[in-house]
Structure formats: structure tokens, C-alpha cells
Amino acid sequence: MSSATRAPDERLLRSSPLRRLLGRPELGSVVGAVAVFIFFSVVADSFLRPSSLSTVLYAASTLGIMAVPVALLMIGGEFDLSAGVLVTSSALISSMFSYQMTANVWVGVGVSLLVTLAIGAFNGFMLTRTKLPSFIITLGTFLMLTGLNLGFTKLISGTVSTKSIGDMEGFPSAKKVFASQLTIGDVDLKVTLLWWAALIAVATWVLLRTRAGNWIFAVGGNDDAARAVGVPVVKTRIGLYMGVAFAAWISGQHLLFSYDVVQSGEGVGNELTYIIAAVIGGCLITGGYGSAVGSAVGAFIFGMTSKGIVYAEWNPDWFKFFLGAMLLLAALLNAWVRKRAEASR
Fold it and tell me: pTM of the predicted model, to two decimals?
């Protein structure tokens, strides 16, 4: 066969914009977000008010801060069922250490960061050393932290909540960093939006522009194959769990400096919401596929739904039904998009 009639090497062919679009894991969630936005814009008259959208963004950001690293962890093929209570643990450590040591609250914030990262490293270390499923490892951590949160709080403060630290040195400056709000025109936006945007940007850069991102996808796809080509599987998994812990520290400090006291029983059940946001955003339960942007869209859908039901003056008891329906529809839509993308190759 002459060179003139030889078929071109498919590796040299440029993929069409449509093919690249169909290959994006967050495509389904973006379509869903547009549909949810239009729906509540129609059924809830107050939904499009600037103050209402600000509330929606705040709800999305508080969830999205955790959904981003949870999405990366799921891309790496793992779960963290302790993420919800770890947020509360982080806040409790900051509050109780600062109060008991009568120190500047920034000392408590620093101690909380170290302890929270250590808990994340513990999850990753136990996972890699024992070879047990992440479900079992982090379920154990979840139960231990739940007990420690309640036990230590009652032991130290005598109640299920911490003492107020609002009058302590450093509280105003810490509040500016973790729980302040920005006023743009007539709209008040919480600083959590900036933390959320920063985490999305960093996570997207890591996934798409760094060697660590390739490691995360490789570990989630097939850890044995990844190990065979030199991917540091152990370090990657421990790093992913520490990433979840870092986001839990940010969320915990926001919780503390928003109210200056913390209830020891908070956070239970939130870990499932983080996972739901990541799945709605295109992450696969089996790992190896997803994006940080998709998790952000999933969190935005959650924020629109949770507040849209209120603005529509519906019974909030139906919220979990809508959340479950969105999860199922998102999973079906993501599966359809993947099949279309694979068929177009």
C-alpha cells in the first residue's frame, strides 16, 4: 500500500470539540445545574433575587469546600466516611485548646491544623498498611471521632458544647480569615466562596497539569498497574486523605469563627452529602474518573435545591427525596455521557 493511500495514524488526529465536550466528566452535572436553575427560577419568585443567590452560593461553598478533595479521593478510588465529623473535630480542637490554654486563638488554629492533618495521614496509613477497604478504615475513624468529640467536650466543658472564645485575643483576625463576608454592591458574599474557588483552582491544576494528577487517575484506575509503572501509590493515597483533612480544617475553622462555640454532635451524616456532590459532579464510585469542577457543580446543585425548596415555600421534608432523585439521575446521565464519549472515539 502506498503512503498516499495509507490510513493516517489515529494518534495524530485531532479530536473534535464535540468529542472533547462529551469526554468531560462534569458535562452531565452542568446540564443538570442549568435545569435545576431554570426550574427554581420559574417556581420560586424570590429565587433570582441577589440576596437569595448569595444564600445559595454560601450553602454551595460550605459543601463545596469539602466536596473538592472528596472528589479527588474518589478519583483515586477511595472513600472517607469520617470527613463530616472531622470538620467538627477540627473546630473543637481549636476552641478547646485556645480556651484551656488561655492562648491566642491562632495557637489553637495551628494546633488544630496539625492534629487534623495527622488524622488524615492516619486514615491513609491504615489503608495502605492493612489493605482493608477504605469503607472499613474510615468508618472506624468516624466512630472514634464521634465518641472523642462528645467525650472530650463533656469532660472539659461539662456540656455538649464548647465555651465561647469570642472575647479572646486573635478572634477578630481569625474571623476575618475564616468567617467574614464581602459586600459587593447590595450583595453580601461569605469568604467561604474565596476558599472554595481557591480549592477548585488548585485541585484542577493538580489533576490536569501535574504528575501528581496522573498518579491520582492511575491509582484510581488500577493501583497494581500504577505501582508497576512506578507510581508512588502509598504516598498518593496518604496525600489524598491529608487533602480531605486540610479542607475539613478550613470548614471547621469557619464553623467555629462563625458562631464562636461548637456543638460536639455536629457533622454526622455530612460525609454522605460530600460524596453525593462528587458523584453528581461526575465522579465514578469505582474511581479513575471525575473532576474538581464537576464536584463544584454538584455542590452548586445541592445549594440551589436546598434553598430553592425554601424559596418555593415547599415542605422541606421533601428535600432528601429531591436529593436522592438528583443523585440517581446524575448517575444515569453520567453513564450515558461516558458511553457516548467512548462510542465517538
Answer: 0.89
Cα 250 from Cα 38, distance rounded (Å): 32
Length of the chain in terms of residues written:
345
158 phi and psi angles, rounded to 5 deg: 85, -5
Query: Can you list the pairs that 46-55 forms with residues at least 24 positions away whose Cβ atoms lie under 8 Å?
Result: 46/311, 47/308, 47/311, 47/312, 50/185, 50/186, 50/187, 51/186, 51/187, 51/188, 52/307, 52/311, 53/187, 54/187, 54/188, 54/189, 55/307
Kindly report, residue by residue over 13-27, the tens digit of the pLDDT. Answer: 455 665 665 557 677
pLDDT in tens, 222-237: 888 888 889 999 999 9
Stretch among 66-70, 109-113, 131-135 having the lowest mean pLDDT? 131-135
Instruction: Please state, in angstroms and rounded to a whole number, the distance separating the CA atoms of residues 131 and 235.
Output: 14
Q: If you ran DSSP here, which 8-state letter would residue 182 be given?
A: E
**Residue matched to cell numbers 466536596:** 67
Residue 304, all three cell numbers: 440551589
Q: Cα(145)–Cα(74) distance, rounded to whole angstroms? A: 22
The DSSP letter of residue 14 is P
The 8-class DSSP code of residue 60 comes to: H
Is residue 253 a contact partner of residue 191, using CB atoms and an 8 Å limit? Answer: no
Q: At residue 23, what is the residue type?
A: G
What DSSP designation does 159 have?
A: S
Name which of 236, 229, 234 is nearest 215 in CA terms: 236
DSSP 8-state class, residue 207: H
The three cell numbers locating residue 64: 463545596
- Please name which of 218, 342, 211 lies closest in space to residue 288, comparing C-alpha atoms: 218
